[in-house]
């Protein structure tokens, strides 16, 4: 924008008119973050640098997925953990995933394919430059803990074709009846002993040490205690955290490459102390624009968030005073708030139980029970479903889930649609309209309840 002329300047002949300089642009407003969010960001950056340095350091790399990932076991073999879906998330947050998705579609992948997959395949095709701006290393092994998402198997077939490296699969039985049986656990322990561990020993050149695994599991359990406390702090009014948008930051270390490390123990102790202070002060969550104002709506959310418009998406909630007090997505890498902890006294069995219990391996009735309990225990106003266009693992059965939770809790549900990391499937206007209608519905429910009282 140009500066306006003064009357004296306007009266001068055109030839004598001084050049009008553009006014300096106001600096963009910094996104506000908790100290714990900054700490998490630094941890992730350091991990990506370790990955990029692997060709020079000689470190070997295992690629695996978040649900059911065996980070403690991977570390026993001095392998670095690279998570393709986390790479896609980071690309989405940086607005890079759209180009990667288009590149994958040029290579023949359908529009209906999971956009995590297409972002990853497109990133490979464009030089495999990671979120840190440096090339990510080729994996030495692909470790698939199958936990209910069929797409993961096809994804690793594509990666195996690309990298020509060995693939190890740990098959996890589906919890169709809602229970973990001893036969399920022993079936998985047998695979760990006879397939997974011997292959990791051969690929890494490191002998398996079960006592080393026990030490990592002790650290995992400590971190899990603090994470559960943080997530359950949202039962307070006002909730000191947002368990969906803010929760994305909180689950990053424990769902990825840090579970089992001292860094994770330190991080979750730090995060807990930070949230404890917010509870004492009666404060709500920190948003990108600072402290959230008055808490007006408490929601439970089912489904992953949209990452390409993450801040804009979150703003639609906190502008209306809506805070997410519980979410299914922050349990996709482990449902710890139902009592599970990694147990160093039964190291292989606890790895099996962890994989069996993650959210993606839970049946629809189990998911309905879980979400209904969240609505009641966290005194939420209702359930909001964010249905992801390209994620069948989450989206299948969501309308049925919503109707059943409504019936059990008496609280209204709502349904919006976006995508993971494909910007073409985020319509801000549509999402905003549906959210505003939902908040009006909640107000009407409250008014009806007051009238009845």
Strand-residue proportion: 5-15%
Summed over residues and divided by their number, the pLDDT gives a mean of 91
Q: What would you report as the Rg, rounded to the nearest angstrom?
A: 24 Å
The coarse overall form would be: globular
Please tally the helical runs, counting DSSP H or I stretches of 4 or more residues.
17
Ranges where pLDDT stays below 50 over 5 or more residues in a row are: 1-28
The main β sheet shows up as: 4 strands, parallel
Can you give the helix content as a percent range?
Answer: 40-55%
Class based on secondary structure composition and strand pairing: alpha/beta
Number of strands: 10
Q: Record the strand order, biggest sheet.
A: 2-1-3-4
The total domain count is 1
Pattern of helices and strands: HHEHEHHHEHEHHHHEEEHEHHEHHEH
Determine the N-to-C terminus distance. Answer: 57 Å
């Amino acid at each position: 924008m140009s500066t306006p002329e003064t009357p004296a300047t306007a009266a001068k002949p055109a030839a004598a008119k001084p050049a009008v300089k553009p006014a300096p642009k106001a600096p963009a407003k910094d996104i506000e973050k908790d100290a714990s969010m900054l700490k998490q960001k630094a941890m992730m950056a350091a991990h990506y640098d370790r990955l990029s340095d692997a060709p020079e350091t000689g470190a070997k790399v295992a690629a695996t997925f978040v649900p059911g990932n065996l980070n403690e076991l991977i570390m026993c073999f001095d392998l670095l953990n690279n998570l393709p879906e986390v790479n896609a998330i980071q690309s989405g947050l940086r607005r890079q995933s759209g180009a990667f998705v288009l590149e994958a579609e040029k290579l023949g992948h359908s529009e209906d394919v999971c956009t995590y997959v297409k972002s990853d395949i497109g990133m490979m095709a464009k030089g495999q430059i990671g979120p840190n701006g440096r090339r990510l290393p080729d994996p030495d092994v692909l470790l698939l803990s199958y936990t209910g998402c069929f797409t993961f198997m096809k994804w690793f077939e594509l990666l195996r074709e690309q990298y020509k490296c060995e693939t190890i699969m740990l098959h996890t039985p589906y919890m169709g009846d809602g229970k973990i049986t001893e036969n399920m656990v022993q079936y998985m322990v047998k695979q760990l002993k006879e397939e997974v561990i011997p292959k990791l020993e051969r690929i890494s050149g490191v002998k398996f040490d079960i006592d080393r695994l026990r030490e990592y599991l002790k650290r995992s359990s400590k971190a899990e205690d603090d994470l559960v406390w943080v997530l359950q702090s949202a039962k307070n009014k006002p909730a000191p955290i947002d368990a969906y948008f803010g929760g994305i930051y909180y689950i990053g270390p424990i769902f990825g490459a840090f579970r089992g490390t001292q860094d994770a123990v330190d991080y979750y102790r730090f995060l807990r102390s930070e949230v404890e202070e917010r509870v004492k002060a009666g404060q709500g969550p920190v948003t990108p624009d600072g402290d959230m104002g008055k808490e007006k709506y408490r929601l439970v959310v089912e489904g992953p968030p949209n990452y390409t418009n993450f801040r804009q998406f979150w703003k639609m909630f906190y502008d209306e005073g809506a805070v997410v007090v519980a979410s299914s997505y922050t349990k996709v890498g482990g449902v710890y708030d139902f009592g599970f902890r990694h147990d160093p006294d039964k190291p292989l069995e606890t790895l099996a139980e962890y994989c069996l219990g993650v959210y993606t391996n839970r049946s629809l009735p189990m998911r309905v029970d879980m979400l209904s309990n969240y609505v009641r225990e966290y005194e939420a106003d209702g359930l909001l479903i964010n249905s992801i266009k390209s994620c069948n693992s989450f989206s299948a059965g969501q309308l049925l889930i919503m109707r059943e939770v409504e019936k059990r809790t008496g609280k209204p549900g709502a349904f919006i649609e976006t995508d993971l990391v494909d910007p073409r499937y985020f319509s801000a206007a549509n999402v905003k309209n549906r959210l505003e209608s939902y908040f009006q519905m909640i107000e009407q429910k409250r008014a009806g309840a007051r009238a009845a009282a």
